[in-house]
Amino acid sequence: MSWRSLPIAGWLAGVLMMHGANADQLAIEVTGVDTPAANNIRAELDGGWVSGGMLTSERRRERLLDIIEVGAVNAMRPFGYYAAQATATLRQQDDGSWRTEIAVQPGPPIVIDALLLEISGEGAGSPDLRAWETRWPLHKGEVLNQVAWDAQLAQLRDLLEADGYFNATFVQQRIELYASELRAALFLEVQTGPRSVFGQVVFDQDFLAPYVLAPVPRFRSGEPYAQWQVDQLRTDLWKLGFFGAVNVSEERSSGASPPTVDLRVEVTPGKRNTHQGTLGYGTDTEWRAQYRWQRHLLSERGDSLSLGTSWQKRTRKLLITGEYRLPRRARRQEYWLFSPTLAQEDQLFELDIDGQDEKLPVAEGRLDEAFARLGRVRLRNPRDSREQLIETIFLQFVSEDNEFAEISDLDRSTLRNSTPLIPGGRVNSLALGIEWDLPVLTGRGFDLSGHRQRASLFTSSSRWA
Q1: Is 348:383 a contact under the CB 8 Å cutoff?
Q2: 317-327 and 304-312: which strand pairing?
Q3: What's the gap between Cα 273 and its chain centre?
Q4: With 0-12 CB in 10 A as exposed, 13-18 as middle and 19+ as buried, what is 52?
Q5: For residues 237 and 217, what is the distance between their CA atoms, to the nearest angstrom?
Q6: Which of 30, 121, 269, 361 is in Cβ range 3.0-4.6 Å of 38 for a Cys bridge?
Q7: How far is it, in rounded angstroms, from Cα 29 to Cα 259?
Q8: Cβ 317 vs Cβ 295: under 8 Å
Q9: For 3, left (φ over 0), alpha (ψ -120 to 50), or beta?
Q10: Do domains 3-105 and 111-191 have the same CATH topology?
Q11: For the chain, domain boundaries
């Protein structure tokens, strides 16, 4: 084996075994090429550690430079440069560590002079595969880039897998390289085969009635397979709040016609109760506190209950809330919802006076409010969105009692002969309506952003007492 063919990391490792001295990583600077190629050169030479004792002789330094230059030239080939030249230098820095500077001359590139790109079979018209084909980056007359070639092939395999073309075959998948002629021919021919469909979904559990989980999958048996639907099923099951663990496994029957994917869902019960509480201080509220208790699963019917309360000192605001949910026996995800609320708060009635910057306090009192809503909630699955549309038909009752009295030290001369209408009394309101709530999300992970689109229709009858 010649030194020129020995990877730098392996050579340096062998030397370190002999010298065992304190070592520093070899700093690498690359010039003459763009960032992707420079990064690939660094990756090719990465792992090199050198110590002062390793490079004491001129012979060792020359061997290291020889290996660096060969590695840099090899690292240019995936980007279509097979005639590249590299010149490396070594420099010891003030702290004793070593630095190599590599000047690369790419030379003439390999150019694509022939391209066969063909997708056939049932998936040829798939929007995802058509979009992939539209974004294909390697065309006739362009520089060969094997990094892009490998990335496109990996992406294509992922798309075929995600859309259920598990029997896809790569009829041709090759690069014909004529380095001496500086040209290459690319051949990629794929037969997708039939698309798989969803089969049965089996829930392996014994603590929930079957009708509770049956409507959770957003797909039906016989519909085309989509990986995102399987991932979404896991998410939707987690959102129920019943489970400590969720495992969804696929059982593929590739020989069936059409190929079928059955799903087995294994779940374990989660914590039955959740307690949340906070205590804090703010300049707008002074001391404040809140507490919430939730019973995730009351019975095998999948019903749940939550109670909460909050308080703040400045306005003596007290809020007590509750919510009870009960799944319905339905084809889609539906449940009954009952949510009562009691609220009390001190309020100050202020008046805007023309020509004055500050508002004038004229009355004060306490607001008492009771609220109750009974509704039927249905989760719909819009075709153009992966987020669910929440539709609620509700009957709502509100009772509000507010009594305000004029403040004792009010200077009526500041009112400029105007008499404010001080609110007060009780109002009872009964409303019937329907509302829709659709989250709109874009991006993924930490780049996720979005908003909510809401609409409602209702009619109400109010009675003042």
Answers
A1: no
A2: antiparallel
A3: 28
A4: middle
A5: 9
A6: 30
A7: 53
A8: no
A9: alpha
A10: yes
A11: 3-105, 111-191, 197-269, 328-464
E strand or H helix at 451, and its extent? strand 449-464
Query: pLDDT-based confidence at 59, cuts 50/70/90?
Result: confident
Give the SS3 label for residue 2. Answer: coil
**Region 197-269: CATH code:** 3.10.20.310
- 111-191 belongs to CATH 2.40.50.140: no
* Class level of CATH domain 3-105: alpha beta
Which of the four pLDDT bands, split at 50, 70 and 90, describes residue 58?
confident
Q: Which of 304, 293, 308 is nearest to 340 (CA)?
A: 308
| pLDDT tens for each residue of 263-276 | 999 999 999 999 99
Q: How far apart are CA 264 and CA 73, in angstroms?
A: 51
CA distance 440 to 386: 9
pLDDT (tens digit per residue) in 97-135: 888 899 999 999 999 999 999 999 999 999 999 999 999
- Do residues 171 and 187 make contact, with C-beta atoms less than 8 angstroms apart? no
Strand positions, DSSP E, 228-272:
243-253, 260-269
DSSP 255: T
Model pTM? 0.78
